[in-house]
Every structure is written in structure tokens, then in C-alpha cells.
Amino acid sequence: MENKPSILLIREWEGQTSGSGCCGRLEGDFLVCRDSQPAAPEQRAIMERMGPLYRALRDSLGDSADIEVIDPRNFSLFFFLLRDFWRFRVGFGEALKTLARIPILAVVVNGRLVARDEWPDAEDVLAATGVQAVGT
């Protein structure tokens, strides 16, 4: 049985991902500042730039790939990476390199870091999966 490609789109979520302490709690869609402007416009811009990439990947691959959007602060990222390191036989050195280089914004395909600090073109991510797009 062949493994479905795994694509991890790593970016910060708008909402809080940890306990709900009284300091720094953020709720909703960040429209909590005056004049209805986002409180963190750089995070909103990152999220909005990821949308076309996600849609292109989903449209091209359908259900033939596992595509996850995950916050880098979410501990489950570690388990997704371990799963992919095992499934796709990523060597120990390359796995450590991927773990050490995960920033707030990254794309990991089959346990290997494909892009960091900016969203790549969908074609580059598709090429890294090693599968043909659905309908081609």
C-alpha cells in the first residue's frame, strides 16, 4: 500500500492556541482594534496569502494527499512530523534539519522542508509530492 503524500502548511492561527490566561488573550477574527482594523495585520496577510496555495493544492490533488494547516505552536506539529519522518523514511540527519529550521511560516512535504518564510508556488509543492494532479 502506497502512502498518500503529506503536506503541512505551517502558519500561526489567529486565535489563541494555549490556555486562557488573563494576559494577552485574543478572540475572534482580530477585528478588535479601533476602526475595525486587524490587530495583527502581518498575520492576517500571511493567512490570506496562504489561501490560494491551499485551494490550488486541494483542487489539484483532491483527496489523494493529506493537507494539514497547523500552527507552529501546536504540539501536534511534532507528531505530524514524526509520522511523516517514519512513513516517508526521512533520514535522521534530514529530520533533525527539518525540525531545526521550522519557522512560523513553512511548507513541509513528506517530512521534508520545502519552503520557509514565504509561500511557494503551488507547482513547486506539487512537484515535491511526486504525484500528478487529479484530472491531468
Largest sheet: 4 strands, mixed
Number of helical stretches of at least 4 residues: 4
Count of β-strands:
4
Q: Give the integer mean of the pLDDT values.
A: 81
Shape: globular
Parts with pLDDT < 50 across at least 5 consecutive residues:
20-31
Structural class: alpha+beta
Structural description of this entry:
With 136 residues, the chain is of the alpha+beta class. It has 4 helices and 4 strands; from the N terminus they run E-H-E-H-H-E-E-H. It has a domain of 94 residues. Strands 2-1-3-4 form a 4-stranded mixed beta sheet, with helices on both faces. Strand 1, helix 1 and strand 2 form a beta-alpha-beta unit. The protein starts with 5 loop residues before the first strand and ends in a 7-residue tail after the last helix. 18% of the residues are buried. About 9% of the residues have low confidence.
What descriptive keywords fit this protein?
136 residues, 4-stranded mixed beta sheet, 4 helices
Summarize the structure.
With 136 residues, the protein is α+β, with helices and mostly antiparallel strands.
SSE map:
Elements: E1 6-10, H1 41-61, E2 66-70, H2 76-87, H3 92-100, E3 106-109, E4 112-116, H4 122-129
Parallel strand pairs: 1-2
Antiparallel strand pairs: 1-3, 3-4
